[in-house]
TrEMBL record:
Keywords: 2Fe-2S, Iron, Iron-sulfur, Membrane, Metal-binding, Transmembrane, Transmembrane helix. Pfam families: DUF2231, Rieske. Residues 184-279 form the Rieske domain. The keyword NADP does not apply. The chain crosses the membrane at residues 79-100, 112-133, 145-165. It comes from Sinomonas humi. It comes from the Bacteria. This is Iron-sulfur protein.
Amino acid sequence: MNLLDDAVSRLERWQFLDAIAEPVRKATHAVVKPRLIRNLLSGIPTGHPLHPVLTDIPIGAWTMASLLDLRGGKASEPAADLLVAAGLLAAVPTAAAGLNDWSDTFGPTGRIGLVHAGLNSAALGLYTASLVARRTGRRGAGCGLALAGLGILTASGYLGGHLSYSKGVKVSHTAYHEGPTDWQDAIAESELDGGEPQLVNLDDIPLLVMRDGGQIVALDNVCTHAGGPLNEGTFEDGCVTCPWHGSKFRLTDGAPVYGPAAAPQPSYETRVQDGRVQVRARV
Ligand code: FES
């Protein structure tokens, strides 16, 4: 284990952070509950999480601002100041999307997310102070505050990478579920008569198969958001709601209709042959 891994592992064990996280999580859930806000911040319109895309703007703007500061010279001062201000503006929706993503994490992952948010808030404070210093003629202080902010932002970015690539936050949990491209036998049609969702294993992929109205539907049973078991969810209005964090997917095609899931649930074509339901991946 290298030094950075060791440091992150220590942060993951800071259980005292849970007492801070819980009220923040509750407040965030209350604010993001309306469908429009939840879906937008979760990334449903784009099919990908919003937060990682937005982070490029403040990180890029603030990095360029410090480069211009280090280059020096009167000519580059207005551009550097503009970049600091632009980064501050972009940080607001970036933080909102990140808070939405974090609010569905728990335990060690939630603790790292909280430290990530704390560092970002500190960086935001430093850049705000930097802008004020620049506007009040204290350019040296403004440049120094921006550099300090960039250092904190770098540490925070490392934790953000850890959350995505090591902890799989907002990574589709069906990313490697390709499913059969040829028709495969799944279940006897008669087993669907009760209307209950049935769990079927197909090439090690758990599928949820059921009747929805007159149609037989089949979805990957592993929620794309964080792996929740959809067959244990609730079924209503042609949709299934995941029991873990409330993502809602349309049964006919797996489209997400309510976050936090951004990726659609893989759905399968179905047909009946000799009383048996067969499925295959949509091509
Ligand atoms: S696992 Fe989070 S909503 Fe399904």
